[in-house]
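User: Hey, my collaborator sent me this sequence without any context and asked if I could get a structure. I don't really work with proteins. Can you help?
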Amino acid sequence: MYASIKSFASSFFVTGDPLIYGADVSIGLTTIAILFVLFYFKKWGWLWREWLTTVDHKKIGMMYLIASLLMLFRGGVDALLMRAQLAMPNVHFLQAEHYNEVFTTHGTIMILFMAMPMMFSLFNMVVPLQIGARDVAYPYLNAVSFWLFLFGAMLFNISFVIGGSPDAGWLSYPPLSEMSHSPGVGQNFYIWGIQISGIGSLATGINFIVTILKMRAPGMKLMKMPMFSWSVLSSSIIIIFAFPILTVTLALLFIDRFLGGHLFTMDGGGNPMMYVNLIWMWGHPEVYIVVLPAFGIFSEIVATFSRKRIFGYKSMVFALMSISILSFFTWVHHFFTMGAGADVNVFFAIATMAIGIPTGAKVFNWLFTMFRGRIRLDQPMMWTLAFIPCFVVGGATGVMLAVAPADYQYHNSYFLIAHFHQVLIGGVVFGYLAGIYYWWPKLFGFKLNERLGKWAFWLWNIGFYVCFMPQYALGFMGMTRRVYTYGWDLGWGPLNLVSTIGAFLMGIGFVFQVWQILYSVKYGERDTTGDPWNGRTLEWSIPSPPPMYNFAVVPYAGERDSFWEEKERRNFEPAPPVPIEQLEAIHMPKNSGVPFIFSACWFVAGFGFVFDWLWMAILGMVGVGVTLLVRSFQYDTDYYVPVEEVIETEVAAGRAI
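Assistant: No problem. I've predicted the 3D structure and written it out in C-alpha cell form, which is a compact way to encode the shape of the chain:
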C-alpha cells in the first residue's frame, strides 16, 4: 500500500528541482495565509456575496486586473530564470528540460493569461462607462467568461508543481507536442488550460460586440463613439473569428494525443505544417487582438493630456477596422522558410507590409494631436510618450521581417525575439499600464503615487532597451531562439549579460509598481470630483468609484467627446445636481453562483482529461451539464434598485438635490 502511494506521488508531483520545492513551499504558505484571513475575519460570506457570485462588470474587471498582475509576476519570474541561465556561457543554473518548460510557460502565460485578462479588465472597467451603459449586454455571460479564464489559467499553472509543465514551446508545434515527443501530462495541461480559458475569451468578444452595438447612450452614433470603444469593437471582431480556429486546432491535437488520430504526424499520413498554419491563423490575429485596445488607450490619453480632440478621428476608425481585416492575411510571414513557393511568400509579404500602413498612420495621428497642445506629463502620458519611439522601432523591424528573402536570415533568430518583445512590451504592456494609470482613479477612487510611479517608469523603460536592443545584435551574430547554453567561443556572452541586467531592471520596476499600489491604497490622492484628469468622455461624468448602476440618469451623447463639450458650454463650472424628481428605480441583474460552479466543473473535467482519468472527466462534464440545466430554469434573474437607494447614493456623492 505504502509503495503504491509512493509510486503514485512520485509521478503525480514534480520532484528533483530545488526551484520546484521552493514553489511548493510558497504555494502552501500562501494558501494557509489566505485561509487564515478568511476564517479569522469571517469573510467567507463576504467573499461569496461580493465577488464569487458578482455579475457587476466593474468588479469582474477588477478581478481580471488582479489575475493579470499575478500572471505578469509568474511570467516575469520565468523570464528572469531564462535570462539568468543565458547571462554567461556554459551556465547550468537550470536543467535543460526545466529550461524548455520555462520558456514554454513564459510565452503562454504572457500572451494568454497576462495580456488577454489585462485587456479584458480594461474592457470591463471602461467600455460600459464610456458608452453610457449601466452594464454589459450579458452580465451573466461576462461572469462565465471570467471564471472560465481563471480556472483555465489555474489548470495551466498547477502543471509547474503537479504532473510537469509543457515543454514543446508556447505554440506547441508537432511532433514536439505529440505523444512520441511529449508522453507526459504537461502537454495535456497546455491543451485544456488554454481550451477552457479560450471559451471565456470567445464569449467576451461576443459580449462586447453586442454591448457596443446595442447599448450606447442615446445620441451616440458609431462615429461619435470614443476611440477606446472603437478599438474594443475591432479587437472583439477579431476574437470571434480567430478563437474558434484555436479551439479547433487544440481539439485536433487532443485527438492526436488521446485517440491516435495522426492528423499532424508524418508517419501516420498527417502533416505537421497543417498545425503550424492553423495555429498561426489564430496566432497572428492574436497579436492585433491585444495591441488594438492599446491603440485606443493611447488615443484617449493623448487627447485628454493635450487638451485637444484626437486628430483624424475618421482615419483612426478606418485604420482600426482595416487592421482587423488585414490581420487574417499575414500569418504565413511566421514561416516563410516553409517552402510554400515564391507566389505564396510574395502575397503574405505584401499583406504584412500593407498592414503597417494603417498602423503607422495612427502614430502620426497621435503626434498631430499633441502638436500645439497643452501637454501634461502625468503618468498615463509618460507611458504613452515612451510607447511611440519603442513602437516605431518595433514596426520598422517588423517590416524587415516582412521581406521574405531577408526573413530566411532572421528566421528563428534573436532578432525575431527582440522584435516580438519590442512590439508586445512596448506596445501592449506599455499601453495597458498607461490605461491602468489613467482609469485607476475612476475605478478605485484614488490616484497612484507619482513619485513611485516615475521610479517604476524609468526602471521599466531603461531596463527594456538594455534588455532587448542587444538581442537584435545577437540575432545578427547567429544566436537562435530556444538556445539553452552556449560556448565562450561564439562571442555572445557580453551582450547576453547586458540583456540579463536589463531584464532584472524591468523586474525591479514591477516591484516599484506593486509598492506604488500598496502605498497608494492608504496614502494616494483621493478623487473627489470624478474627473481627476479633466477628461473628455462619459466615464468622467460620474463619481469615483462609480455606483453599482453607473449612471443614475442615462446621459445623452449627441456629440463626439460629449462630456468635454458639455463642460465647455458651462465654462468648466461643476455640473448642477440632478433634481431627485428625475431619479427612478433602476433595473439591474442579480448575482449568481452558477458561473463560478459551472467553471469549476470545467476545471474538474479538464483535470480528468489531463491525467486520462475518464471518471473525473465525465464527472466534471456532468457538472457542466447540470449547471447549464439549472441556469435554463432560472427566471428570477434581475431586480430593481429602489429609488430611495438611488437618491441616497446620488445625494451622498453630491450629484442630486
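In plain terms: The chain is about 65% helix and 0% strand. You can pass these C-alpha cells on to your collaborator as they are.
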